Amino acid sequence: MNTINKNNSTHSQRNAVSEEHNAVSEGRNTAIEVSNLQFSYTKESPPIIDIKAWQVSQGEHVFLSGPSGSGKSTLLNLLCGTLTPTQGDIALLAQPFSALSNRQRDKFRARNIGVVFQQFNLIPYLSVAQNINAAVYFASTNVSKTASDAKLRHLLDKLQLPSHVLHAKADALSIGQQQRVAIARALINDPQLLIVDEPTSALDTDARDSFMSLLKDVAGESTMIFVSHDKAMESYFDRHCSMSELSPSTNHIKTRGDEAPKAQERA
Amino acid sequence: MLSTIAIESLKRRKTTAILTLLSITISISLLLCVDIIRTQVKTSFTRTVSGVDLIVGAPSGQLNLLLSSVFNIGTPTKGIEYKSIAALQSNKQVSWLIPLSLGDTHRGFRVVGTTNSFFDHFKYGDMQSLEMAAGSAFTQPLSTVVGADIAKSLGYKVGDKIIISHGLGSVSFNNHDDHPFTISGIVKKTGTPVDKAVYVTLQGLEEAHTGPKHSPTSMLGRKPADKANEHEHEHEHEHDEHTKEHAAYNSEAFTPESVSVVMLGLKHRVTALQLQYQINQSKKEPLMAILPGMALAELWQIMGNVESLLLGLSGLIVICALIGLATMLLATMRERYQEIAVLRTIGAGPFTLLLLIQIEAMLLTIVSAALSFGLVAGLMSALKPWLSSTYGLFLSSPLFGQSSVIIILLILGCTYLISLFPAVAAYRRGLHAGLNANS
Q: What angle do CA B360, B362, B368 make, to 5 degrees?
């Protein structure tokens, strides 16, 4: 059972309304469909993620919360295809995403999924233009250079970034500028799915509100999964899903249990 | 885009990249230098002598005889007495004879006492005859003909007078001041030791050492049969001009007491081995005859081991530099985990990451190779005069041959293989790169 939080257009009104949610029943196509999804880093370790069923409708903006170690980032990695499910299926935009080959998954991700990271993760030695154009390059779309440049300028305008930052190295930008460039990179290929991983954790309330307005504005009709452990953010979204509800069995037995295998993996 | 990322990434790691670049450049340059010296020595030595069938001197070693007579390297051997030369001259198999008397210098350049037959018969490169850039061969006993490099470096022209010094070396206390030689001709550049030699008449050389002596009975360098029809000699057709000029002075008419070496041209080359055997068995005076080709082959054989050793060592140095490159890339891999995760998330596949690291490695090696070519070409051009004066090594174009290209291709192949280590590390990391790689 999922919790749905409907929010009105103004952020001050946080009238969370919980009801049974079924995206398909609302007549919208399904953007994300997860069934019997399990993931563990090693064969021996217990699953970190165990989701029986989860659906997100196209155009829906979902707030995904959970304490540290609840498996939020792992779920995002699975949705991006940078991790492969141990068991179960993920379908994205009506494509059997988890059944695609690695190469097909990379292409699908580049063309259909935009990601904004917690630390924005721009490549520091590339210029803003190079950072954004890298996303265009890896997507290998047939969009002409002129069209992608026009799109880039449009995004910069919308994100209130002056055009001279295009040639600045990413690490020479302010945090706010880096954040906006990260959004531009995520949106340059007009992704149908936008994944945003705790980008507001370092921001104060005013900056956070301003960032959220901007994000909602530029995200438009894209389906968005926004991850944060700060439940105060839920009012910005159509629906709130918590990891404890999505993956009750794994969140019941551990609190930070998935940290250890990740650390091993990084080592 | 991948190459842009690779270039920018290397620029970010400027210091380590430049140090790696330097180490690869130096090692490739070293390897190229060894290769150039190796091939140029062979080319230079091979083109120095052509058309000479036998070289005869006092018994020493065939290499010593070859080096001192043809390449003006090392100490000349004890002389050959005139009677032996006369015997060679009268041998039916001998077509022409060039006597060479060595041991003096002019301002550090070797002085060679000879006759006009040297200019008529000596050939270099692909059977090319010597040509005069100015003047003519010997016109009088105290005539001298200088090589092109000497004329250029010392600013000599026809008619200038020069003094020769006794003994080898650039400084001598025994100058033959009372016997100045007049430059009668300057030889056109040959790219062989001829360019750096001063040729004087045997008569002039002996007079400088012992005082005037006249012995018109000998006809050194001419076959006795030619005496009667001297002006109908076959080379007259080829050298009409300077025969006319040196008709007034017959340098071959002088009889020296001895000469250092004699070069022989045979009527039929097939008789060379037979004549060599005869000369080596000579009972009158112990002599040694060598075939220049065989002596060179012996030289290559000796040099072959040193060559392989130098090439092997230089190759190992290149491998070390390439391992340094791989180490640099591997060491930076940890700080690039976040970057790899980002590239992966925006659509770069693990194979693309592998390619990216390999492009970085290849870029460094290609730039190093280009720098090495420039460096070696500059170095060789700067060392050219020194190499030719000190080692008798005349560099000829093209400096870089097929072997240089093969070396560079091999180095690029090695770079590809060695860079697989960091590239596979990036690939493996790419397989697991997640959003929270840095969290």
A: 105
Q: Which residue from A74, A76, A130 is facing B8, i.e. has the nearest CB?
A: A130
* Assigned token pair, B178: 């009372």
Which of A82, A125, A266 has its CB closest to that of B9? Answer: A125
Chosen for mutation from B4, B337, B435, B439 (greatest number of chain A CBs closer than 10 Å) is B435
- Main-chain phi, psi angles of B263, to 5 degrees: -100, 135
Structure-token pair, residue B171: 């400084």
Confirm if B146 and B199 have CB atoms less than 8 A apart. yes
State the pTM of this model.
Answer: 0.67
Q: Which residues of B touch A141 (CB under 8 A)?
A: none
Residue A21 lies in a domain: no
Predicted-complex ipTM score: 0.72
Burial (0-12, 13-18, 19+ Cβ within 10 Å), A245 = middle
Nearest CA in chain A to B2: A134
Contact present, B144 and B120 (Cβ < 8 Å): no
CB A83 within 8 A of CB A48: no
Which pLDDT tens digit goes with each residue over B201-234?
Answer: 888 887 777 655 544 444 454 444 444 444 444 4
CA–CA distance, A133 with A189 (Å, rounded to integer) = 10
Closest-CA residue of B relative to A134 is: B1
A106 vs B9, B341, B349: nearest CB: B349
Q: Note whether A115 contacts B435, CB cutoff 8 Å.
A: yes
C-alpha–C-alpha distance, residues B26 and B321, integer Å: 9
Work out whether the CA dihedral B143, B202, B50, B129 comes out positive or negative: positive
A261, pLDDT greater than 70: no
Q: Is the peptide bond before B398 cis (omega within 30 degrees of 0)?
A: yes
Note whether residue A4 is domain-resident.
no
pLDDT band per the 50, 70, 90 thresholds, residue A28: low
Q: Is residue A243 part of a domain?
A: yes
**pLDDT for the residue B368:** 92
Number of domains in chain A: 1
CA separation (Å) from B404 to A109, A120, B35, B46? 46, 48, 7, 20
Q: What is d(CA B140, CA B179) in angstroms, rounded to the nearest whole number?
A: 13
C-alpha distance from residue A45 to each of A76, A89, A261, A265 (Å):
20, 20, 8, 13
Cα–Cα distance between A110 and A127 in angstroms, integer?
Answer: 20
Residue from B14, B342, B432 to probe the interface with A (highest A Cβ count within 10 Å) = B342
Per the structure, the complete domain to which residue A156 belongs is given by 27-266
| Amino acid (one-letter) located at B401 | G
Structure-token pair, residue A103: 């190469």
Q: Is residue A52 part of a domain?
A: yes
Closest CA to A34 of A77, A78, A70: A78
Please give the Cα distance from B265 to B262 (Å, whole number). 10
DSSP B97-142: EEEEEEEEEETTEEEEEE-THHHHH-EETTTEEP-EEEE-S--STT
Residues whose CB is less than 8 angstroms from the CB of residue B386 and which lie 6 or more positions away in sequence, other chains included: none
Which tens digit of pLDDT belongs to each residue from B263-276? 988 888 888 888 88
Across the interface, of B1, B338, B350, the residue whose CB is closest to A134 is B1
Q: Is A109 in Cβ contact with B345 (below 8 Å)?
A: yes
